[in-house]
Amino acid sequence: MRTCTALRAGFVGGVSVLGLMAMPAFAQATAAAPATNTGIEEIVVTAQRTAQSLQDVPIAVSAFGAEALQRQQIQNSSDLQLTLPNITFTKGNFTGSSFTIRGIGDLCVGVTCDSATAIHVNGSPLIGTRLFEAEFFDMERVEVLRGPQGTLFGRNATSGVINFVTAKPDLNKIGAAGEVDYGTFNSLRLRGMVNVPLTETLGVRLAGFYLKRDGYTKNLYNDTRIDGRDMYGIRGSVRWEPTENTRIDLMGYYFKEDDDRSRIQKQLCQRDPTGVLGCLPGRLENGKLNNNSTFVGVLSSREFLRIQGGAALGAGLSSVGLGSLYGPDAYSNFQEPTDVREVRTAYTPTYKAMEQQYQARIEHDFGPGKLQVTGLYQKTSVDSSVDYNLGVQDANFFKPGLTALGGLATALPVFNRIAPTLYPSGVNGPYCTSVAEPSGTGAFGPNGGQKVCGAVPLNFDRSNEERRTWSVEGIFTSQFDGAFNFLLGGIYLDSKLPENSYYVNGFGIDYVAGVLGGATALGSNLPAGYLGTPFFRNHTDETTLKSYGIFGEAYFNVNDSIKVTAGLRYNNDKKYVRARSTLASFFVPFGTANAFDSPFVGTFDADPGRPGNQLWQERDVSFGEFTGRFVVDFKISDESLIYASYSRGYKSGGINPPLQPIFEVAEGFAPEFIDAFEIGSKNTFLDGTLRANITAFYYKYQALQLSRIVARTSVNDNVNANVYGLEGEFVIQPTRALAVNFNASYLHTKVSEDKFISNPRDPSGGRADAVIIKDITNGSNCAVIPTVAGNAAGANGYVAAVNATLGLQAPTSFGTDSGINGATGAFGICSALAGNAAAAGVQVLNAGVEVNIRGNELPQAPQFKFSAGAQYTFELGNGMTVIPRADLAYTGESYGSIFNGFVNRIPGYEVVNAQLQVNGRDDRWYLRAYVQNLTNNSATTGLYVTDQSSGLFTNIFTLEPRRYGAAIGFKF
User: Fold this and answer.
1) In this structure, how many other beta carbons lie within 10 angstroms of the beta carbon of residue 30?
2) Does residue 649 contact residue 627 with C-beta atoms inside 8 Å?
3) DSSP secondary structure letter of residue 821
4) Cα(first)–Cα(last) distance of the chain, in Å?
5) Whole-angstrom Cα distance, residue 231 to residue 833?
6) Residues 26, 193 contacting (CB under 8 angstroms)
7) What was the pLDDT predicted at 25?
8) What is the pLDDT of residue 32?
9) 317 SS3 class
10) How far from 170 is each of 28, 66, 700, CA to CA, in Å?
11) Average pLDDT of the chain?
12) Rounded Cα gap, residues 749 and 701, in angstroms
């Protein structure tokens, strides 16, 4: 097996510029060989679990050394993706994020989803890590491997692996480094490192960072800034070499964040005047959703309450409605700021995150082979809350209903607890909303309940999770002198998630829960109460993952130039989940300490898929699969390598979360498989001054996992897809002073099978003869279509006739610029419309009209990417250097949804960074001035569409704004 003691300088494998610029950084203090006048230095990587020159590894791998991370202003994961071919990164839904490699990222969303891109620290897998939120500090390097890696790394990965390699203690000398960085938005960033060899065989290293800055987003409601940062991280490492053949490494890491980070950057909406959809699918613009389309809008409407109350109570309940389905709504007069850095909200976001990592590794060299055993314990938590609608509701629209409730409560005492609880000082406010809390009682709980009050009605969500994971892995690597060598490994991983919840809270939800609870009590002769829970909560009480894998590779050198690699892996995954979803689901008498202690909780069924009523849905699944890879690489010369490989990748399936019954979705999703074919060439030309690496690949995905949001919950489907592309990475170092890097990539993705699913944005499926219905009992949409295609009059007439019996209006047009192809819309009740549909020659489709997504591009998969950077070193006579550098990165157009279309298009964007650094004699100190995102580009990096009961608004995520500042640092 070919290895190389390559120099640990700042080369980044054809992606970044090399380590010829002696910028101090907090890397392991391993001495680099002296630089020559020309020639590109290399970095050691462990992509194949042994130290090798990157140019000798027959895998598409890029690596950033510590100095390169600093030089290219790569502070975090968002910066990292800009300069890598066929790789994108964006924040996502439910406090998540997605690192997409070659068109495949974390498209599956849920507690039982595996990550397509595996994240490792020092080779050990991380689950649910918060590293994407933290800053990079004291890294030896970051390795990015593209393609399936199951036979080399402990957890399966269908798209690739990102391996964070932390700096280890240097046993040879005392060392320290520090940096103070101050920039725009009052950003203060501190980094530091101390390295102390205690003996010749024992050393310790302590490093950390601290970041505090003001928010990038201005809140026009109260003239404050939100989306700031207040975080720190600390890492301690110990290295002990008791013998010349034995090494023990220990590492402990702690990260904490507590600030007003916002999970939502901006909401866009083409406002729907009808309220049937909330936001129209024609385009994205700075409008606000029609609140009549939401779950709260329909259930608090005068029309629904009249129908719910029946002949005896209908008129009285109707009068306390917060509005009419056919009138203005609480966002009618709201003005959405046009700047993506501006919002208007009465709710300040909160964000708390924590991660602990404890790793131990022992390595022993037996001569013929090396054994490495690694254990890792990881604990993470995240708890965030933000204004769900990023808007301010006008309480004047609610006041007539709130006033009427006072009169109804006088006549019917079962209603008299609502007003004192939710608007205790009268209809002019303040207005109180349940907090997101585990008892499920909220504002209606004992002793005044748990609530937050404000001058305007509040809407907010909360996403929280706790997780602990441990793993142990052993790898034996042979070191024979002959033509044959092998690697054999095994891993066991145990991950438990004791808490995961997603809440949606709002004044209107509390109001609906109270009013409908009073109506239920009155109609069933029950004590006064409300419907629990008075907020939406998708609650996962427990999730466990137990996984083991056995993997290995054999290497055979046919001759001095040709090597064959064959790898095989068996993986076994077992998953269990206990969860439920509640929202005004059962009657709870006032005074109940926990909603699920209600004597009437037996009417609630968390698991409609099984007979009887259960308080939890419990499921378990298991998967076992063989995968592997085969590689042939040919060393044409010492400067050129070509290779061809085939890999079979696998990612286990999982369980969809429970839904409140709206329409049927699969309980689970199948495993994901990939057949990956790759050819590549790694070359060094012109006496070592030019490096050119080129890779081509073709992927066949079976059962690719994709998510969509249904009933405020992410569910996952499977679809087949084909992916192919080309990548080129180039570095040129014509002189010692000048260094230039360039890379480019092309990517083609498409769904390769007939796959019919409904598009939530447009339930008509593009049919002009369809009627889109907003179901006023739950906020979802269904579609009514004629049995004989084209008979729009029949569908419209049927809906009009049924609606007339309910006191609801006939269908109406969405408008010519709505993006709806001629279909009409109406408020209605889907189950009522389904009753005589067949006899009337129509069908009621609860999920909407399905469309074929065959041929569509995968989300977050830009066809083109390129980046370029250049730097020049001016050597001063006193031993100092001045080094200017500039970088340009361009990411091409992509889509934020599998349904593609103009409304889901993410335009291409560019990012320009620049800096100027002055280094002191022997690099003991430096001064740096920098600017990031020089053009102040506010481009969108990703988007997702919320569900129909929330109004189908689109949340977008953007680049960070222009920042500039200066840093001073030292190193010895």
Assistant:
1) 14
2) yes
3) -
4) 37
5) 54
6) yes
7) 32
8) 35
9) helix
10) 7, 15, 45
11) 90
12) 10
| Token pair 């439920």: residue | 580
- Among residues 603, 614, 617, which one has the least CA distance to residue 542? 617
Q: Tokens 């006088």, residue? A: 410
Predicted confidence at residue 856, as pLDDT, reads 96
Q: Which two tokens stand for residue 174?
A: 């005392």
Q: What is the pLDDT of residue 3?
A: 37
Strand partners, 46: none
Q: In the prediction, which pLDDT does 118 show?
A: 87
Helix pair angle (507-524, 302-319), 10° resolution: 70
In the block, which residue shows the tokens 């938590």?
381
Annotate 261-308 with three-state secondary structure.
CCCCCEEEEEECCCCCCCEECCCCCECCCCHHHCHHHHHCEHHHHHHH
Q: What is the signed CA dihedral for 422, 427, 430, 435, rounded to 10 degrees? A: 20
Helix, strand or coil for residue 822?
coil
Identify residue 1 by its one-letter amino acid code.
M
* Neighbouring C-beta atoms of residue 164, cutoff 10 Å: 18
3-state secondary structure of 402: helix
Exposure string over 709-725, b if 16+ CB within 10 A, otherwise e: bbbbbbbbbbbbbbbbb
Q: Are 469 and 357 in contact (CB under 8 A)?
A: no
DSSP state of 104: B
Q: What's residue 883's pLDDT?
A: 95
Residue 424: asked if its preceding bond is cis (omega within 30°), the reply is no
The 10s digit of each residue's pLDDT in 112-139 is 888 888 889 999 999 989 988 889 999 9
Look at residue 52 and tell me whether its pLDDT is greater than 70: no
* Phi, then psi, of 429 in degrees rounded to 5: 90, 175
The sign of the torsion formed by the CA atoms of 581, 100, 573, 698 equals positive
Predicted local distance difference test score (pLDDT) of residue 213: 97
**pLDDT above 70: percentage of residues in the chain:** 92
Q: How far is 298 from 317, CA to CA, in rounded Å?
A: 14
Phi, psi dihedral angles at 498 (to 5 degrees): -80, -10
Q: How confident is the model at residue 23 (pLDDT cuts 50, 70, 90)?
A: very low
* Cα–Cα distance for residue pair 155/115, rounded to 1 Å: 10
**Torsion sign across C-alpha atoms 15, 20, 22, 26:** positive
Find out whether 533 and 583 touch, Cβ atoms under 8 Å: yes
pLDDT at 425 over 90: yes
Instruction: Write out the two tokens for 409.
Output: 């409560």
With tokens 């959809």, the residue in question is 277
Q: Provide the pLDDT for residue 714.
A: 67
Q: Which of 545, 872, 706 is nearest to 104 (CA)?
A: 706
Which three-class secondary structure state does DSSP give residue 82? helix
**Residues paired with residue 741 on neighbouring β-strands, in sequence order:** 731, 869
Q: Which amino acid is at 73?
A: Q
The pTM score is 0.91
Which tens digit of pLDDT belongs to each residue from 823-856?
Answer: 999 999 999 999 999 999 999 998 899 999 999 9
Confidence of residue 73 (pLDDT cuts 50, 70, 90): confident
The answer to whether the peptide bond before residue 50 is cis (omega within 30 degrees of 0) is no
Structure token digits, residue 797: 């007439």
Name the least confident of 66-70, 527-531, 568-572, 951-955.
66-70
Tokens for 630, please give them: 């085969």
**Computed from CA positions of residues 303, 308, 312, 318, in that sequence, does the dihedral angle turn out positive or negative?**
negative
Q: What is the pLDDT of residues 183-216, one digit of tens each?
A: 999 999 999 999 999 999 999 999 999 999 999 9
> Which tokens is 347 given?
């709710």
Whole-angstrom Cα Rg for the chain: 30
Phi, psi of 602 (to 5 degrees): -65, -15
Angle between helix 399-411 and helix 302-319 axes, rounded to 10 deg: 50
For residue 179 the two structure tokens come to 């940096």
- Residue 63: CB partners within 8 Å, gap ≥ 6? 12, 13, 15, 43, 45, 54, 141, 142, 143, 144
